[in-house]
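chain below, 267 aa
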Amino acid sequence: PQQVHPGIKAAVLTLADGTKIDLSAQQQSVLHQDEQVKVITTASGTVQYQFTASRKTATSRTNTIETPIGTEYTIILADGSKVWLNAGSVLTFPESFASNSREVKLSGEGYFEVSHDSKRPFYVRSNEQTIRVFGTHFNVRSYPNENNKTTLIAGSVQVSQFGKSKMLKPGQAAFTTGGNLIVAEANIEEAMAWKNGFFYFESTPIKDALAAIKRWYNVDIVYKGTNEKRELTGKIKRNSTAQQLVETLNFLDIKCRLENNKIEVEL
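prediction:
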């Protein structure tokens, strides 16, 4: 049977001409270079975009980086902004940004450290939501079939959806529920846990918690029972083996077992 393992550092980069590059296999090297942009991978496992031309020749050529299920990766954009991508995420971005604004699209989850540039606001578009950034650190979770959530660590952002806009202060989160955009105090440790190597659950609905585990371990989850109101509270290392994961879940009173390439969970 196929072994279940925690995720790895890997991604697929798609250039403007459609060329796909497997970043898991890359050593420190130049992946692409032309008169406007140079794309390199660093020894630490990051892909970095660098200008080779002046900003006046910014291109509209779009690139995409995707972290499949069971992977995560980090990218440095041409303006110096840094994005950590969680498993099952896609970031679409221009090779170089225009002189008046910077815009990227995200599906999945990313932690952003945006370079300050008062002349060029930075926008993140995700699942019908727009986040305007004023040079800052924040986390965006926007997986398909899940509610959007933006958590601000430092700086300020404006979140817009449903025709409404909300400004966030550090330590606040904006999330969608039932067609409404809500601002509340954030749990910063929970928002940053994945980037810091943990799953952090606090009264998290069991299916939401296990969806995150499924994305990272690339494992099928099979539910037995009907108590879907179960919740999970606990902290689990993301580098745990599958067996350690199952043992921890059982310790947290979630009865489950590893069977081939799936985890069976009793609700």
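The helical segments are 188-192, 206-217, 242-251. The domain at 8-188 is CATH 2.60.120.1440 (Jelly Rolls).
thats it, cya
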